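Sorry to interrupt, but I need a hand with the structure work. Could you write out one complete protein record for me, on any chain you like? Could you add the entry underneath, on a fresh line?
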Amino acid sequence: MRPSMQLQNFASKQTPGRDGGNAVPAHTHTLSGSLELMGAPMSFAKGVEIYGESEPADYLYKVLSGTVRTYRVLSDGRRQIGAFHFPGDIFGLETGGVHLFSAEGTTNVNVIVVRRSSVIAAVARDNELASELWSFTAKELNRSRDHIMLLIKNAQERVAAFLLEMAERVTGNAVELPMSRQDIADYLGLTIETVSRTLTQLEDAATIELPSSRRIVLRNRRALVEMNA
């Protein structure tokens, strides 16, 4: 089933509240919790489009399991990945009426899908939700700014920043990457050869260990931080 048809079926099954979406109990004061109450779960196989660039941004999404990448294809055919989203992350929120990026899973993913109009109605009634949505939007803007700044660094600095970003998601120093080397390259604006060569250089310097292509152990986190300074 095409993703657009899945969303149409999802929309037809929602129970509308006064705002045209699912009502949110007054005691719910977290954006993440509200999305789960207002929305419904959907599953997407690895590589299946969740939404496309320039499509109407009528829904918001929260990742329940798996990992999502948002990306756009440049005029010369290259792919630029804008972000990776992990369990608990919210994505798909746009300042305009259409999506600026496409989204698909790097793995099989389960998400909560909720109408954008329902979220807007909920924050209009709840100051705490409105404040949290504002904070989330500011955080996303900062993340986008940091990613732009990352792309002007050299290859080693970009890879170090990426490893530190992924390490923030785990406890300890071992990172299991749910994306391919090509995904990493497209996120960092590098070639896959440059990413692989830089990882090997970091391993040779005893900064990281590479037990496998998807598993990376940070052996000298301070060195990575200094590279990223």
Summary: The first strand starts at residue 40 and ends at 44. Residues 53 and 102 are 4 Å apart (CA to CA). The domain at 3-129 is CATH 2.60.120.10 (Jelly Rolls).
